[in-house]
Give the backbone structure.
Amino acid sequence: MKKIFLVAFASVLIISALHSQTLKSPDEFLGYTLGTQFTYHHRAVEYFRYVAENSPLAIYREYGTTNEGRPLGVCFISTKENLANLEEYRKNNLIKTGLLKGEFTGKQIPFIWLAYNVHGNEAVGMEAAMKTLYTLVSGSYKDVSEYLKGCIIVIDPCQNPDGHDLYTNRYRNAMNSIINPDGNSWEHNQGWPGARTNHFLFDLNRDWTWQSQIETQQRLLLYNQFMPQVHADFHEMGAESTFFFAPGADPWNNIITPWQHEFHKLMGNGNAALFNEKFRLYFTKENFDLFYPGFGDTWPLFNGAMGFTYEQGGGGASGVAYKLESGDTLTLKDRIDGHFTASMATIKVSYENREKLLSEFNKYFEESVKNPQFQYKSVIIKGSNEKSNLNNLLKLLDRNQIRYSYAGNTGKKFKGFDYCANRDGEVTIEKGDILINAYQPQSHFIQALFEPKTKSTDSLSYDLSAWALPYVYNLKSYALADKITPDTSKVELKKIINEFPGNKPYAYVANFYGFDELKFMAALYRKNIKLRYSLKPFTLNGNSFNRGSVIIARGDNKHPEINFDKVVTEAADECQVKLIQTNTGLVDSGKDFGSENSPLMKRKSVAVLCGEGTVPGAVGEIWYFFEKELNYPISLINISNQEKINLKDYEVLILTSGSYSKLKDTIIDYVKRGGRVIALENAISIFAGEKTTSLAKAIETRTIEQKAVEKKIKSNDSTLLKKFEIENERRYALSERSAGSIYKVKLDETHPFSFGLGKEWFIMKRTPGIPYLTTGSNIGYILDKEPVSGFAGFKFKDKIKNTLVIGTEKIGSGDVVYITDDPYFRAFWKSGRVLLGNVILR
Ligand SMILES: [Zn+2]
């Protein structure tokens, strides 16, 4: 025994010596010591490729490309033998989850996935990834060769290369050549937008479930091919903070299993041991909770893995050296060591618990299929729902490996929870209804996404408190305790092809249902086709048409250079919109095509303001909406050049959440001259502060009423007596806000801005509303103080009843549209696309 041990030990030493002799360290490869500079992304990619080419212990695999053309890739690190059988390990792992059919060959070891730099300006991540990679392949760390025998480690050095390089380029651009830890210096203060986000200014650590961004889409395609047992996501927080590791803070989502809780403790203890050795400070169980499903810790947890967030004190402002309030200097080297230590602790703890990690992982999926925990065993999504929203939901389910089918048991009636009505009800299953059966590998995740009332251990969340998918997509859906039989026929989305050989109709008409038709309108505008839309419902040749239906008349488009029929039918095919031909403009009932009830519309130029004072994520959503959803051009105008701003070229101006006080006069003048402003969230304050608007008058009236009420209760208001502790301060503040909860919005269906949304719609509510307008239109409003899902504080609830969400008023020759909350939240609130499309295109 002893002899064998000695031989093995000697061979490890020889291998280690060989590798360290032949393989360049990051310092040798880059030409500078790690921590003295931020590395460009392409250099780190070169290093990862170099290591894979020169070491038998690493394989590099590219998995995608960013918006700006940078490569995304990972290294698999293990023994030569394990890597030779990587495909077998991968398949076996998936077979154990039930997500892949096949024969389990008996070989299974855990995949440990370390992912760095999802936030671009938390740039220590990629530096620490290089150090971790080198340490693993060079064997220059105690027990590493054992770790590699027992596990396959995956390192993604940079999940957000575009954000990372924006940070690095700017940092190197502004860096002092004499190291300068003074936080006031330019190198510690980058401009708008922060480099946290990706090209479209999205926070990729909120995007896991929704996968709206291509970085997330491509990364999760790879992730889903492996389904790791452990996933760690490396971040940075403010420079004055120490280090955060597991266990995560409250609230924990209720679907997290006891073993996942236990492993979080084990991981915390393992990290503490290594951090104690180095006398490094840290904290656990605070600030970073495990509730919202879009994070790099919760999404893996809801996919059977152990998900962890690590936070090193530092961040974008820290540079290579940063003077702290204590007088100490925080260095990049020190931050690298923090994440390196956490990386090694993650591997060590996972290795030491590898057998239980595997058996519990396998059990998680077995139980999901046999005995799902979700109180509802079936979710029925009505097939009659608007197809753009329905198709988008199915795409989301596919991306998250959630299986669905058509529902069997047609014609039968079942009791269950009716999401849209927000109460128990019943549903008769019809042909074409979609069934999501809880008895499947992703049962836990189904529970996370379809639980009508999200449940947690606490109400103090770092992020949203509700996201149930039927509200997100505005779909008639039911959660049933019964197990519905699936229909075995494949779910197929019918492709629309418009063919009218040789005909020259008077007009083409597209019935209006939702976002696809708005996209179609945008496509026609882009081709300079003029169109009309009906303000009222009508019937023609026995067909009924909804409000908002699109009328494309030959008589409106006589320009000889336009190949009218070809352009219209091609645009309809591209947008999957069904056209109907007519040889008359005379309707059977309703208003004729030439009526003023079918206003003539043409191409509009649209701009959004961006730059210092605007919220990057909010601007990014609009940018992304135009380019990736509506497929329509938009100009991003930077308000820092305010002297040069000329708005007269634009018919529509969008103001996202932000502060525009210096531009107030310019914006109000723009509306008066005939422009349309869409003011979102707190951009509304420009008009609230302009005395002549209906909004300002409504707010003034409400304030007088509220003051009278407050006067009454003030003498006896014990809620003003707060406790000292920070936790309670936070809790008190929560009573006045909504932590991202879902409210039902009642709509004026006759207003063009609400066409396609139905009588009721749901919004992610985070701000108190505005009062009803006495002149202008009140289009969407809240009648109930209770949210349909999620947490809202008691004071917030009192304020929210009878407030406006969507309104519009005329100012001079133009108009302004108020939308109090983000209707297209993080680009996952898909039902809000119809509202945005309406206010822009109509
Ligand atoms: Zn972060």
Summary: The pocket of zinc ion is lined by residues 119, 122, 205, 235 (CB under 6 Å). The longest strand covers residues 803-811. The first helix runs from residue 2 to 22.
